[in-house]
Amino acid sequence: MIHPDILLKAYRLMCTAGAMAQIYEANRSVCKYVHSTSRGHEAIQLAAAFQLLPCDYVSPYYRDESLLLGLGFTPYQLMLQLLAKADDPFTGGREYYSHPNYRGPDKPGIIHQSSATGMQVIPTTGIAQGIQYLEAHLAGRLQKGPNGDLPVVVCSLGDASMTEGEVSEAFQVAILKKLPIIYLVQDNGWGISVSAEEARVMDAYEYAGGFPGMERVRIDGSNFEESFDNMRRVVQYVRQHRTPYLVQAKVPLLGHHTSGVRKEFYRTAADLEKHLADDPVPRLRQQLICKGITEAQLQSIEQEAAALVAGHFSQAIQAPEPDIATVGDFVFAPTPVQEEKGQRNDSSLSSNTSGKIVMVDAALFAIREIMEDHPEAILYGQDVGRRLGGVFREAATLAEQFGDHRVFNTAIQEAYIIGSTVGMSAVGLKPIVEVQFADYIYPGFNQLVTEISKSCYLSCGKYPVQTVIRVPIGAYGGGGPYHSGSVETTLLSIKGLKIAYPSNAADMKGLMKAAFLDPNPVIMLEHKGLYWSKVPGTEDAKTLEPSRDYILPLGKGNIVLKASEDAINRGESCCIITYGMGVYWAKAAALHFPGQVEVVDLRTLYPLDEELVFSTVSKHGKCLVLTEEQQQNSFAEALAGRISRHCFRYLDAPVEITGTINIPAIPMNIHLEQAAMPDPEKVKTAISRLLLF
C-alpha cells in the first residue's frame, strides 16, 4: 500500500509539470529555445525519482522534467535552463531544457546529458561498472545511503533509442559484469514522426529477452501506483542483488515531440485521442478521490501548482542572461601539471647494457608506476589482459602485478571502451584505456564527440572526464590500409580533447604521467614504428629511462636539432616543425645540410606550443611543416596557415608542407607504402627548395 502522502506529492508534481507545459506553450515567443516536456510520462518518472537516494546516479533524457521535479529540483531551476539564463544550475545557459548534470550531497549524481539519442547508455553503464569496482576494491570511497544502502544507477531512455548499436554494447557489459543498473525505457510508441511499427520488430521488453541475465518487467507507465510499486521493487532488487534490470513503461505522448516539431505535423486526431485516454494525471486524480481525497483538496493543489509555476516563470524571465565573457570558460579543468619535473635521464634505472629503453617499455613503466601510486587507476581494452598484455606487448606483466580486476580485456567495443570512461571518471576512478589501432577509433567517435569532449564545458566544470586513451598509430613495413592510418587531424577537430604524440621514450614516460594527472581527456598517439626503434634511423627514440617522478607538461615542444648561429645569421637556415616519425625523417634529411636545419618536435598537438613554433619560424624565416598524415586539409596545413599569419613579416619563403599523398588509405605493398609516404629523401628535396630562397 502506498502512503497517501506519496500519492498527493505525486499529484502535486504532476500538476506542476502540467502547468509548466501550459505556460511554455502560452509563451512560445519567450520560450524560444527548443524544448520537450514530460506530458504523458509524469507517472513513471516520478515513481522512479521517489526511489532514489543521494548515493545513487541517474541519467535523465530530454523529456524527463518530471523526474527532475521528483528529485527535488524546482520549476525555477528548470526554467533557468529552458530560457538559457546565466543562473541555470546545470550548464549556465549552454544546454537545452531538461539536460541536467548535478553533483551534491542532497540528490543523486547526474553526469552531463547530451541530446544524442541513446548515447547516455554507455557512460551511465560506466558509472555502474565504476561503482562495482569501488564496492569490491575501494570500499572506503563508495558513497552509501543512510542505512548503508548500496548505490544503484538508473539510465532513462526512450523506446526509439533502443535500436542504437551502442545500447547493445552497454547491455552486453552490464550483463557480463552483473552491474547494478536499471534501464528505464519510456515507450510512447514514437520516435519523432517514426512509429514503433515502422522502426523495429520488437519492443524493449522483448529485446531484453535476448540478453540472458537481464531481468525485465513491462508495466503501465501511466498508472502511478503500478509504476511506484514496480520501481520500488526493482530498485530494492538491484540494491540487493547487484544485477541489471530493464523496465519497459508504456506511456502516452501528450505533448509535442519538441517545441519545434509539433504533434499536429504528423499525428492524426485518432492517435492523439488514443494517447489522451491514458493521461496519467486524471487517472491519479480519480484514484485519489477513491481514497477519500476531496474535490476541494485536489483543486487547491492544482491552483497552488499553477500559482507556483507562474511565479517561478516570471522570476526566470527576469533572471540575467549569461555574461558573454564566460563563453570560453570550462573547456578544460585546470591541470596541476605546469612545469617539467624530475630527472629526465636517470642512468640508475638502466636495465640493459646500453642504458636505454624503448618507447613501448617507457609507456609500460610509466603505467606500472601510476598503478602502484594510484589505486584508482585501472587499465582496459582489447587484448591488454593477462594472456597477451597487448598486441604490441605494451601492457605485458601488468595484469600479473595488479590483478585481473585492474587490468582486463574488453570485447571489440570501441564505443564502450571510450564512453565508459565518462562514468568511471565520475565516480572517482582514473581509467587508462586502449583502442588497438588508430584505424579502429572511429566506432568510438560518437562517445568522443557527444559525451567526453563536451562534458566539462556543458557541466560548467562539474564533470571533466579524467581519462587517458592510448592509440597506437602510424605506418611502417606493410601494415596495410586498416593498421597504418593517421587520425590526428580528425581528433583535433574535436574540441575539448588533449592530444599528445611522443617521439621518444623519455617523452613517452613524461607525457604519460602528465596525461594521467590531467583532469581532462588525453589521447596518447603512440607510433607503432617507434615502439621498438626497429625502423632504420629511429635509434634515437630509445633514451635513458626518466626517474619515477619525471613529468613532462602537455603543450611543451622541444628543439631536437639546432641550426648553427652562423647559418642563421647568414640567412641560410630553415626550420622543420614536426612530430612522431617526422622527427626522424627530418633529422636524417638534415644530415645533408650541416648546421642549416633546426627541428622542432611538437610532442603535444593540443595544446600546441605556439610560442616555440612562432619564435623558431621567426628566427629562420623559412619553415617546413612535416607530417605523416595525408597532406590535404590536414592539421599540418592548418598549422602552416597559422604560421603564415603569425610570422608573415619574418618569412622569406612560403611555408612548405610535406606529408603523405592524398589517398584514402596506406597500401599494403611496402613499395607502394614508401611511394605514398614521406621519407628522408623527400624531406631533403623540400629543404633544398626552401634554402634556395
Automatic annotation (TrEMBL):
Residues 357-533 form the Transketolase-like pyrimidine-binding domain. Signal peptide: none annotated. This is 3-methyl-2-oxobutanoate dehydrogenase (2-methylpropanoyl-transferring). GO terms for biological process: branched-chain amino acid catabolic process; response to nutrient. Its cofactor is thiamine diphosphate. Coiled coil: none annotated. One of its GO terms (molecular function) is branched-chain 2-oxo acid dehydrogenase activity. InterPro entries: DH_E1, THDP-binding, Transketo_C/PFOR_II, Transketolase-like_Pyr-bd, Transketolase_C. Keywords: Oxidoreductase, Thiamine pyrophosphate. It comes from Paraflavitalea soli. Its EC number is 1.2.4.4. Pfam families: E1_dh, Transket_pyr, Transketolase_C. E1 component of the 2-oxoglutarate dehydrogenase (OGDH) complex which catalyzes the decarboxylation of 2-oxoglutarate, the first step in the conversion of 2-oxoglutarate to succinyl-CoA and CO(2).
